[in-house]
Amino acid sequence: MKKTIIKSTFYLILISVLAKALSFMVRIILARRLSMQAMSYYTLTSPTMVFVITLAQMGIPAALSKVIAQRDNAGKPLKSAIILSIVNNLIITAAFLFLIPWLAHTVLKQDSVQSVLYAILPLIPMVTLSGLLKGYLLGIQRHLAATSSQIFEELSRIVFLFVIFSIRTDYDAISMARIAMLSVTVGEICSSIFMLANIRIKKRTLKRVPHLFTNLHKNQFDDLLMVSIPMTGSRLIGSLTYFMEPILMVIGLSVIQNQWMVQAYGQLNGYVLPIITMPSFITITLSNVLLPSFTYQYARGNTAQAKKLFNVIIGCCFLIGITCSFICYNYSEALLQLFYHNTKGAAMLKQLAWPFALYSLQPPLSNMLHALSRSHRAMMDTFFGSLVRILCVALLTRYILIDSLPLALCAGMLVTTLLHCINLAISFRKSSI
Hints:
The two termini are 18 Å apart. The chain contains 18 helices and no strands. The chain folds into 2 domains: 1-216, no CATH class; 222-433, no CATH class. Helix 3 packs antiparallel against helix 4 (75-107), helix 3 runs antiparallel to helix 10 and helix 16 runs parallel beside helix 18. The model is unreliable at 202-206 (pLDDT under 50). The protein has helices at residues 2-33, 36-57, 60-70, 75-107, 114-118, 123-139, 143-167, 173-199, 203-206, 218-249, 255-276, 280-299, 303-330, 332-340, 346-353, 362-371, 375-400, 404-431.
């Protein structure tokens, strides 16, 4: 069992590293091909894209992987997930289509980005489909296939961007931003095709599609919603915190102080956080394996194997976090120079380095709470952590200015991680693990 876990973990990390490298290539292509104005339009609409993806998936993929892992028959949970996703997608698509002009004019204050926002519409069904397929593959313990889909997603984006920008070089800024946004949809389409090929749907399965809405039972939906709704709530809380932070940050400051804070906020989010959270793609990959695999063993009474699986993954995640913190603390200026050709934010990177060693524990701890049917507690932990972060920004910025940003970030992260640990310890005691 232990050798199998280590071997699978090694392959998953290897695939994740390759996918992350391809993701960086996408960023390099966008940075080189997009004009400064086009990049501004793209980054301005990206938070809206992330928010819409959260609403479109509604936590159903992770919930599906957990429910399938608990049962021997994957058909009923998959059927319920498809129906919930269809209904949710129709609502989200109609609402977003109606709100696009208001978002562009009132919220983003850029009427010209309407066409970029419209480019998000085809992403809604495709990201839902890819999420369902990934959740299904994880639920039936096909972790390598689910993780490998990320490689095809990034590769297809690279090819799409390279071909489009090679055909023409005289795109205006809005067209460039729209192409960059559409590339996300292309990636989800190719990822879905790869996963469908791995599932190898049989003809008799396709014949059952017309009977999708027959023999429905409320408890089939309840099992999914009990996990998906709290997970969606946690992600929405994070999105709302991200949205409110810069607004609260500049309240009551002078013009000069405002400029300092905006510059520091840009350094934090543009330079520091991408580096210090870089290993998160590995810890998130391991955590996505932990949720269905732990549930599978635990539901069948194999508590010893389930606990061993948790210990191996949490140990790997912590080792990754410690290594990243050591590198960021001792080589902060070298890392910034390597990636960005400047050393802006080096002091902030050092401040955050060691506290963020615990950030690597958040994904596995959160997924363990979901696996033990404590999704509500995971959502509340995220809420309290986000509340502490917002309060630190709102109350401390006018007194300590720039230092309030890393302090608020660390405080919120540590509160969430500590509460996850406490609730998981309580859950372990109740479950006799």
